[in-house]
Design a protein that fits this description.
This protein is mainly α. The protein has 4 helices and no strands. The structure holds fe (ii) ion.
């Protein structure tokens, strides 16, 4: 594989990871704003939001270091679907559980990616 092909694959991977982490924020922030009765969950979620913001910054630094930018289109599209996913659980009586299940699955998706 040519060096430029390897680089292109790496850049796409960084852009996908950046969009995925942005999607995670679009899921977690509305969840956090709705938590009323579970302060420990809220604290953990806030901690993970801060960690995710740091991951986004590091990915942006990696892209900048390669004279590349993140994909605004991917960020916008995935953030929209993330917000819709978070909204989907608000009508459930067990919203806190559904969010926990979804967040666990999404985190494993992030780890895999
Ligand atoms: Fe995460």
């Amino acid at each position: 594989m040519a060096d430029n092909e390897t680089r292109d694959i790496f850049i796409v991977g960084l852009r996908n990871a950046h969009a995925m982490e942005s999607q995670a924020l679009s899921i977690m922030k509305p969840q956090l704003s709705r938590i009323e009765n579970y302060p420990e969950v809220a604290e953990m979620l806030q901690r993970h939001i801060t960690e995710t913001e740091g991951q986004i910054r590091r990915i942006e630094e990696s892209l900048t270091g390669l004279n590349e930018d993140h994909s605004r289109l991917k960020v916008m599209a995935l953030s929209l679907t993330g917000s819709m996913a978070a909204l989907g659980h608000t009508v459930a009586g067990d919203e806190i559980l559904k969010n926990s299940f979804a967040n666990f699955a999404f985190e494993n998706f992030e780890i895999s990616a």
